[in-house]
Amino acid sequence: MQSSGWLEPGSVFTTPELQRRYDEVGISLFTPKCTLVPDAFYDPSEVRAMLSEVVPLRQADKVDSVPVPEFGAVLLYSNSIDESLSRVISQTVLTTSGESAPVYPELYYILKDLPSCPEYNKILASYRDGTLHLAVAQGKTLQLANVYKAVDFTTAEYFLFLALKTLQVNPEVSTISWRTPLESSEEMSLYRYFKAVEVL
């Protein structure tokens, strides 16, 4: 595998790591079609209606939901973004019991990893293919979980700093963590504002 851990789509059929079975498999899809709702407002029969209030859905889009008990919420999502690689990987990389791995939105994995950020101000993000996925918590309280269209990393930084300003989170005393690799120029740009920058 490449040192960053990120591979080109064609390598799915030739990479040995993708031909094995694992006890646990997590496959992330960078879908912007997702939203988080508190448990109290979740109605499984209204997933499409609730999701369509915040993201545009096509009639053919399939919708689903996954609980996020760490924050007493449910993530509503659609993986219908006109790609098939995630399904291929899901059918190729199996668990030890022979089951296909589920494909969840990147925001799901950000929310699952957020509690492991060690500081009081927990900031965890991913940026890939023009989309910023961001979650911010203070202590055990989730303050924000959102997806932003950002054509470049500078625009992603704009949304990041706007969110932190709105939440009154001071980046100078905070560490920002990333689930996606950063280019050296992106990392240096972030270091001008944050106490520390980490890539998980």
Could you describe the 3D structure shown?
The longest helix has 15 residues, at 153-167. The chain has 200 residues and is an alpha/beta fold. The strands form four sheets. It has a five-stranded mixed β-sheet with strand order 10-9-8-11-12, sandwiched between helices. Strands 3-5-4 form a three-stranded antiparallel β-sheet. It is globular. It is built from five helices and twelve strands. Helix content is 22%, strand content 29%. The mean pLDDT is 87.
Report the sheet with the most strands, covering strand number, pairing sense and barrel closure.
5 strands, mixed
The percentage helix is 10-25%
Q: Please report which band the strand proportion falls in: under 5%, 5-15%, 15-25%, 25-35%, 35-45% or over 45%.
A: 25-35%
Shape summary = globular
SS-based class: alpha/beta
Measure the end-to-end span: 17 Å
Characteristic terms for this protein:
200 residues, alpha/beta, 12 strands, 22% helix, globular
Architecture blueprint of SSEs:
Blueprint: E1 21-22, E2 27-29, E3 34-38, H1 47-52, E4 64-68, E5 73-77, H2 85-92, E6 94-95, E7 103-105, H3 106-113, E8 121-128, E9 131-138, E10 141-149, H4 153-167, E11 175-178, H5 184-191, E12 196-199
Produce a short descriptive summary:
By secondary structure, this protein is α/β, with parallel strands linked by helices.
